[in-house]
Amino acid sequence: MKLLIVEDEVDLLIAISNYLTKENYLCELADSFRKAEEKIHLYEYDIILLDITLGDGNGLDLLKIIKKHNVQAGIIIVSAKNSLDDKINGLDLGADDYMTKPFQLTELNSRIKALLRRRRFEGNHLVTFNEIILDTDSKSVSVNQQHIVLTRKEYELLLYLMVNKNRVLTKEAIAEHLWEDNIDLSDNFDFIYTHMNNLRKKIKRCGENDYIKTLYGMGYQFTDQ
Length: 225
What we know:
- It comes from Microbacter margulisiae.
- Keywords: DNA-binding, Phosphoprotein, Transcription, Transcription regulation, Two-component regulatory system.
- The structure is a single chain.
- This protein has eight helices and 14 strands.
- By secondary structure, it is α/β, with parallel strands linked by helices.
- Strands 2-1-3-6-7 form a five-stranded parallel β-sheet, sandwiched between helices. Strands 8-9-10-11 form a four-stranded antiparallel β-sheet, covered by helices on one side.
- Strand 10 (140-143) and strand 11 (146-148) form a beta hairpin.
- Helix 2 (33-42) packs parallel to helix 3 (59-68) and helix 6 (152-163) crosses helix 8.
- The longest helix has 16 residues, at 105-120.
- It is elongated and about 55 Å long.
């Protein structure tokens, strides 16, 4: 899962990023309104952690921009302000949750997991596709009731494919979702083929079905059709 953390307190920004990275989230950082707005226009995120008080702007104005452009990310407001009006305004503008500083990083992680379950997995921590079961809490995968060992990237790739089943996903979309902004500097996307091929082999070892379809000149599709 890909997160954007918008926070102008650099120490807190780094602390949140370090903690969530250890929890296997892909974190991108913005320490100002300007940087956050630029990233939101260029990239897609599953969750945006949004501070209200930024040095060069108001997080609620950034939230308005997010909603105006129909960005589909879940929004958790994180702010030192404990004002009821700020909380109500944020939720009325479309935020999904609101946390007041100081907070425990473990609680933030729980809020993120809960929001992901509500938005992406219909409230369930299990994502299933025929004989494949992916547990978003334990980060584990089983095929035909056999546990398979995946690397972090293989797990994220499988989750991305399953959540977007039957959709055609371009190599560019996959790369941008699973790797950080510097993917723009890559000359080609051959590494996606390697990860895709390794994932395909591991799934097929536990069953005969190959759900990863290569659509030459287009990308990939996860489907049983």
